Automatic annotation (TrEMBL):
Domain of life: Archaea
Family label: Belongs to the UPF0251 family.
UniProt-listed SUPFAM superfamilies: Sigma3 and sigma4 domains of RNA polymerase sigma factors
Organism name: Methanothermococcus okinawensis (strain DSM 14208 / JCM 11175 / IH1)
One Pfam family per UniProt: DUF134
Protein name: UPF0251 protein Metok_0236
Taxonomy of the source species: Archaea, Methanobacteriati, Methanobacteriota, Methanomada group, Methanococci
Amino acid sequence: MRFRKGRPKIPRIISEEPKARIFKPAEILGNTTNNNEKEVLHLSLEELESIRLVDYLGYSHEEAANAMGISRRVFWNILKSARKKVSDFLVNGKIIRIEGGYYKLRECGMNDICGKGKYCIFKPTRCCPRFQVNDDDRYNTDNNTDNKD
């Protein structure tokens, strides 16, 4: 019987896949496959998500860790790695390729607001950002809209 060392790795929750996967300085022309592989940095999708949550959306580390379904320490390690890669990209003019990682996409009902995911006490209409509803119907808990007098 084979035993695993340590705790099993938990997939990180990300909101969406990026719209663009490769970024390079304007001075670098041509296809990225012809460039030296040492000049290409690989940023995982969970590293991108950590930067998006903290630096772009302004979440605290605790809120961002809850949104990704991981501990604050693991989140900090991911964010630290991501920031190092992005700074290397900016300072040294390297190519950055976003790919890979151990993640799963956020499902409707998993939310950033309360951080409880599928255990959220609210209906998806109140906390799921992907569930589009009209503002008038947002907090309506009555499913039957017909008035029977």
